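STRUCTURE:
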């Protein structure tokens, strides 16, 4: 059988409300924002590719993923997303000494199915040559209620309609049916892998003939290799969104998106629409390359989070599949006005950024374009700012697309974007105090250099204004 697997070798803010007045005697300007617990920072976990993170109803986040050695299944858990970075990682199962599961172990996913913890994964034989890419999908099952403590044993192999390269399975339920989605090479179609879906009869058998959802044919899907893999499903705003990963696993790796109405027949390929362009790609400005193989979770406030892997650098020596630096990353997932996910760009290393909407100008964001800061509408990535700690307390505000720059207050009251290492007109003109804005998620940015003044939305201009004024209040979203 011809192995096309060389790739594997190498597959609204609220309307202007009366500004909340502090209890008599306490100035809202002194209401220090409680120190935020250290939130997550990227990379969240180094050298864990294909990460699956989900928040279970026991209150823990569980995370698994591929390890660079591709020789074992690992699992970690934490009460917080940030805690996953340092959480203990246990080995659930190691590849076997010989046979079909003695080689590569790829892209595990943990699922609780009818009360049993099951991990699906792709595995191949050892032994060298092309045979190591006889990759098939298997599952192991835990013998107890705690996946971190129980003993794991092989449940079996996923029975697909073709005995061919298959991987990257995921399980989700919709309207009472449990579905299996996966990537597979189909005989007669000259690609590395396509995406399929089918209802499950048992954890490893299908209840119906699979539907083929997409074949990689678009330019951005066939760069290096013809790949559609790593399906992940999100049900929001009356639709199901299925992301998938495309092209070679180097900097050309990216996310595509299939969408279907929640009332449609998921088994009808015609009911799914495919984005003609990738929805998430490498970003030189933030220095993240090859973002892909994603999953979805929510943060501690219930807000959608995109989980994915990506490298810090573009050029790779050797086969990307054996480069260990696909790190697990997370970021907020936002939505367009019509409820479609807006993936923006990979936000880059460091604490997760926020977006700041003007309380005084609903619909207007703290934003930048062509090196100029302003208040208004802009693409998602141009409204994401990272607050980094400043010397002596306070913070710098840095656009994620210009990580070597940050905001600086000027004597004329203007606020500009300047290189972090540039001199400022006054000492500390690039330092602000993030303080309580009088209600949840409302903040002010007090200027350290110009006391009593704060970053404000004055029409479309970003300027200093009296800190007590509504124009100085921002909603962190
Ligand atoms: O990381 C190993 C494999 O490479 C994953 O299963 C696939 O999604 C990726 O391309």
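SEQUENCE:
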């Amino acid at each position: 059988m011809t192995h096309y697997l060389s790739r594997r070798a190498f597959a609204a803010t609220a309307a202007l409300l009366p500004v909340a007045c502090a209890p008599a005697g306490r100035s809202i300007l002194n209401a220090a924002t409680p120190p935020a617990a250290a939130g997550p920072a990227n990379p969240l976990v180094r050298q864990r590719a294909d990460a699956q993170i989900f928040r279970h109803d026991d209150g823990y986040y569980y995370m698994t993923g591929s390890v660079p050695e591709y020789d074992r299944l690992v699992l970690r858990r934490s009460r917080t997303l940030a805690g996953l970075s340092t959480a203990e990682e246990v080995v659930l199962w190691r590849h076997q000494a010989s046979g079909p599961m003695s080689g590569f172990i790829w892209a595990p996913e943990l699922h609780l199915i009818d009360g049993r913890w099951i991990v699906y994964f792709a595995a191949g034989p050892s032994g060298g040559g092309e045979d190591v890419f006889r990759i098939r999908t298997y599952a192991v099952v835990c013998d107890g209620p705690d996946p971190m403590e129980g003993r794991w044993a092989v449940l079996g192999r996923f029975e697909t309609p073709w005995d061919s390269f298959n991987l990257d399975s995921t399980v989700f339920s919709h309207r009472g049916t449990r579905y299996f989605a996966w990537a597979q090479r189909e005989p007669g179609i000259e690609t590395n892998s396509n995406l399929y879906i089918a209802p499950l009869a048992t954890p490893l058998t299908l209840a119906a003939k699979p539907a083929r959802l997409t074949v990689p044919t678009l330019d951005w899907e066939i760069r290096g290799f013809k790949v559609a893999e790593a399906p992940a499903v999100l049900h929001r705003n009356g639709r199901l969104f299925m992301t998938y990963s495309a092209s070679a696993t180097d900097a050309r790796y990216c996310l595509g998106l299939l969408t279907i109405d929640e009332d449609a027949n998921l088994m009808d390929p015609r009911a799914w629409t495919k984005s003609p362009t990738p929805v998430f790609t490498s970003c030189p400005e933030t220095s993240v390359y090859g973002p892909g193989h994603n999953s979805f979770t929510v943060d501690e406030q219930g807000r959608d989070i995109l989980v994915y892997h990506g490298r810090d650098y573009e050029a790779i020596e050797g086969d990307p599949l054996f480069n260990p630096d696909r790190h697990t990353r997370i970021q907020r997932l936002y939505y367009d006005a019509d409820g479609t996910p807006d993936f923006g760009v990979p936000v880059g290393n460091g604490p997760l950024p926020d977006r700041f909407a003007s309380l005084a100008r609903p619909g207007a964001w703290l934003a930048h374009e062509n090196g100029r800061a302003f208040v208004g509408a802009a693409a998602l990535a141009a409204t994401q700012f990272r607050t980094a700690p400043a010397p002596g307390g306070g913070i710098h505000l840095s656009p994620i697309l210009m990580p070597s720059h940050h905001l600086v207050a000027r004597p004329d009251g203007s606020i500009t974007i300047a290189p972090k290492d540039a001199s400022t007109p006054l000492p500390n003109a690039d330092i602000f105090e993030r303080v309580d804005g009088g209600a949840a998620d409302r903040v002010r940015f007090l200027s350290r250099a110009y006391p009593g003044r704060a970053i404000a939305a004055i029409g479309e201009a970003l300027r200093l204004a009296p800190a007590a004024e509504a124009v100085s209040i921002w909603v962190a979203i």
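REMARK: Confidence is low (pLDDT under 50) at residues 1-6, 9-28, 30-35.
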